Amino acid sequence: MQPLSKHRSEEKHRQILQAAMRLFTEQGFEATSMEQIAQEAKVSKQTIYSHFGSKDVLFGAALHQKCDQHALSAEFFVEDEAPRTTLLRIAQAFSALITSPEALAVYRTCLAQVDTYPQIAQRFFELGPNAMIERLARCLDEFHQRGLLHIPNTRYAATQFLMLCHGEQRYRAALHIHPLLSPQQHEAYLNTCVDLFLKGYAI
User: Fold this and answer.
1) How far is CA 125 from CA 25, 129, 176, in A?
2) 142 neighbors 77 (Cβ within 8 angstroms)
3) Rounded-to-10 torsion of CA 77, 79, 84, 88
4) Is 1.10.357.10 the CATH number for 71-200?
5) Does domain 4-62 fall into CATH 1.10.10.60?
6) How is the chain split into domains, by residue range?
7) Euclidean distance between CA atoms 45 and 34, whole angstroms
8) Model pLDDT for residues 106-118, shown as the tens digit of each residue
């Protein structure tokens, strides 16, 4: 059983991350102050700084938590799981993440403030797209080393796969084009992405 003080600290940590993500997506990075986050999370500013150190670090932690929620922060490779099963699982989780309102709002925030806060765009790239590419590349390398697929450049292949998964749904969600594809249509599209990728890198 966890000590009560540790449980409270973890609960405050979660409260801060949730409040930060809400405010960053609603107001943008520049317009959101640590004071506002403290009020939203019902903690002191000192508590926020003791957990995260700076607003930049807090922004990165909020991004990482979002990936956690979509099961995209752990390693992708699963022992004894067929490549098609693994890739479809990744495609579904990745697509759900990049079309979520929070992820789209964060992306717009980074684009809008890339000139004034380039470090935020850099942090977004490192913790979001680049981290995703690297994790998928490691997974693809496992497939390559085990003779399941032939992938000489796994980073290129990882980028290709994730770009395929963006698809029409991502554009519709980002540009508020309605209706979105139905769940059945989008699932069918992701399945064709996986099949196309596997065909391209088949042994």
Assistant:
1) 16, 5, 23
2) yes
3) -50
4) yes
5) yes
6) 4-62, 71-200
7) 6
8) 888 888 888 888 8
